[in-house]
Design a protein that fits this description.
Helix content is 78%, strand content 0%. The protein has 161 residues and is an all-alpha fold. Helix 1 (2-46) packs antiparallel against helix 2 (49-84) and helix 1 packs parallel to helix 3 (92-136). The longest helix has 45 residues, at 2-46.
């Protein structure tokens, strides 16, 4: 009976530690995402399109990693809740760390959504400004007549020699 209980306890502890590791990694990915969003904002403000494209590609990779990690975290979260719902398991300080990590992740998600929205608005404003500049652009050569305009009609050229 004790061996079974010890084995169960070890499994719970291992589950808790793995779940905690994944949450910490996920937090790191969200922090990286926030950094990329900051760089995107600077690129939008400076008008550096090439750097913006590069940062958008990095953003897509980070978002993909976040979703992939979330697929691994969700089942562990369910196991964690079922394993630790009403029974003692790992040390209390380890168990208390998981809700704190989950709360930090939620705050980071909220911050990511807020900054992403700000960048979208900023990018939309910048695009509208550029569209206005393009619409106002006048080709200086469009109003001039060609140097050949007054030369008259074409004629016959004798090339027989």
């Amino acid at each position: 009976m004790t061996a079974t209980r010890d084995g169960e306890l070890e499994q719970r502890v291992a589950l808790l530690r793995r779940f905690r590791e994944l949450l910490v990694e996920q937090r790191g990915k969200f922090e990286r995402y926030l950094t990329v969003l900051d760089h995107e904002r600077a690129d939008i403000e400076s008008g550096d399109v090439d750097r913006l494209v590069a940062h958008v590609e990095i953003e897509e990779q980070v978002v993909s990693e976040i979703y992939t990690f979330q697929k691994a975290i969700d089942p562990l979260d369910e196991l964690y809740r079922s394993a630790f719902a009403a029974s003692p398991g790992a040390r209390d300080d380890e168990r208390a760390e998981v809700p704190a990590l989950k709360a930090a992740l939620e705050e980071l998600k909220t911050e990511v959504i807020r900054r992403n929205g700000e960048n979208r608005v900023l990018l939309g404003t910048r695009m509208a400004l550029l569209r206005g500049e393009i619409a106002a652009f006048r080709n200086p050569a469009a109003s001039r007549r060609s140097v050949y305009a007054g030369a008259g009609e074409g004629g016959i050229v004798d090339i027989s020699g």
